Predict the 3D structure of the following.
Amino acid sequence: MGAIYCKHCMKMIDTQPTEKVTNYYSECEDVQCRESRVESLPAGMKQESA
Ligand SMILES: [Zn+2]
């Protein structure tokens, strides 16, 4: 059996009834994950306030 993981947040999305144990990577539909993909720019919202 293979598993499909989100390549962004590593969450398991689905499983596949394959003979070999194989991991696939796709994209989940999680809202937070989708937002984090869009926010792939440097200097995001995680700036530390001195
Ligand atoms: Zn994800």
